[in-house]
């Protein structure tokens, strides 16, 4: 069994790394009590809270945090008709926070994620590790068997080509979860008691050409490098599918990162995931996704972007065309999704006119 | 871990040094019950020192010449002597560990049974087609994560299991010379499949493979001009690994990396090795674009055919870059011939 860390008494570091260059995006529907536990590590940073569900409800934010909060009314007001691309009644709405941020980096975390302990019992400062991951190069072109070569105590192994040791810029840092693992509904139903107690002390770059399931629970990225591709799709109310928002974004960003020569890392940091969502509810949401996935994966594995696509927006728009062309046959949903992808980029560019990406 | 059938395993040890007493004594708890093949480096003059109590067959230069002929025994000199063991073994799985390694301790302080871990890795499927963020999905306490396609959850056969090293990691001479005090103290508790098309440097220090599946693909081929008796002065395993990974990818098999760890001891001097002209670096630089763009013909369905096709491509595309590549290509062809002749007479 594994427990969350006790962070009482840990001092707040007011000289925290990148505190003026990073926004923390949190989607919530209930409350933000979990932030109390994160206070030592997160208080120096600005929060963007995206309130899903009933906009008339007031979300209490623990004292001392600097934040901006957006509910559905705000989203509709700010985006107008383009608000249609932002999901309702699903944590996918968090990507509105990415769009509205003005910072270089984003850290997003779910409101049922607490601070984890490393094997020595020490509280894990997940954000600090994410920042380390993002500021260090990635190595997608050749796998290093000692994992992150830039980590203290590690290096490139014998045989690793010297010309590839500089690495490339890191666009995404994908963290993991102790306690409740991120399983799909069928697995949850078969193994309701399984808990992840294995602390794997490694960060690694996911090789070029390899897709992975990106979980949005504990994720950080360089908004300037990849932001416009972090659209979390159409989920929740009025949509035939749920719990595939982060997956969809993950497949899109990986194809685009591979195309643009950017790196995606996975591994540390761990957070402690406290709540298991209802597997029966999850099954209903995921149901179509389980079948559609079988066609979606080959689509992304073979998706080729043109040489002319050199910005993230260009890549994303090309991808949306391919989605419309190749996936609409599966279900009219993909037609809508392709349109939403275009709307998202239009909205992004409107809100971020000087974006370098 | 699941019980393994010891009769399916050969532990092959390449003796580059004569005294194997300390090495074998330290591995006794984990080697006992297994059949060992010890192959003596044909260039080693001294008699081997092997402690009692092991089920071991020892092969030296004379044995090699009997099997492959006098002119071919040079193929098995130095660290490559172990490949002779791969050649003549009759078992399904091979586990090979360098003689400067002893069992490592896990974070709980228990000695790691590297043999069992390797065989377990080989017996369980690999998942090269999609990355599982919780690493090995078949291990106790883990599974495939949300978003992992169901059609890919059966996995594919595992061709090789590449282990790691605590203490002295397998770093190259320049790196170790620069960081003389650096020791690997991080125990990463994971086994993972290296994805399809991803290249990696496979180290021969702590490795296991399914001989029945991919035996001929482990080629003793690339020999550095100044190849020496320390790992810093070789690249044979890295080249072998590039070939093995490419062929595994082509045939739909998987290659795993991670656990088990071994504890690797001090031997040799990185700075000394640096003094030698380090051509390995140049050869690796040329190898990478070659393997990246290489496509084996779809008609190559058997491992032996893949090796032959690979050798052809090496000769054609890399032969003009360096004589070492031409020699490697020739060695690969010769290896397949030897493999077929030795293994068809059963």
Automatic annotation (TrEMBL), chain A:
Positions of the record's site feature: Required for activity: 158, 165
InterPro entries named among the record's database cross-references: Nucleotide-diphossugar_trans (IPR029044), RGP (IPR004901), RGP_fam (IPR037595)
Sites where a glycan is attached: 158
SUPFAM superfamilies, alphabetized: Nucleotide-diphospho-sugar transferases (SSF53448)
GO terms, molecular function: UDP-arabinopyranose mutase activity
GO annotation terms (biological process): cell wall organization; plant-type cell wall organization or biogenesis; UDP-L-arabinose metabolic process
Subcellular locations according to the entry: Cytoplasm, Cytosol; Golgi apparatus
Role summary: Probable UDP-L-arabinose mutase involved in the biosynthesis of cell wall non-cellulosic polysaccharides.
Entry similarity comment: Belongs to the RGP family.
Name of the protein this chain belongs to: UDP-arabinopyranose mutase
Organism: Microthlaspi erraticum
From TrEMBL, chain B:
Annotated compartments: Cytoplasm, Cytosol; Golgi apparatus
GO molecular function: UDP-arabinopyranose mutase activity
Reactions accelerated catalytically: UDP-beta-L-arabinofuranose = UDP-beta-L-arabinopyranose
Record GO biological process: cell wall organization; plant-type cell wall organization or biogenesis; UDP-L-arabinose metabolic process
GO cellular component annotations of the record: cytosol; Golgi apparatus; plasmodesma
Positions annotated as glycosylated: 146
Superkingdom of origin organism: Eukaryota
Site (Required for activity): 146, 153
Pfam entry (one): RGP
The keyword Disulfide bond is annotated on this UniProt entry: no
Keyword annotations from UniProtKB, A to Z: Cell wall biogenesis/degradation, Glycoprotein, Golgi apparatus
Major localisation: cytoplasm
EC nos: 5.4.99.30
Family: Belongs to the RGP family.
Protein function: Probable UDP-L-arabinose mutase involved in the biosynthesis of cell wall non-cellulosic polysaccharides.
PANTHER family xref list: UDP-ARABINOPYRANOSE MUTASE 5-RELATED, UDP-ARABINOSE MUTASE
Protein name, UniProt field: UDP-arabinopyranose mutase
Organism (species): Microthlaspi erraticum
Lineage: Eukaryota, Viridiplantae, Streptophyta, Embryophyta, Tracheophyta
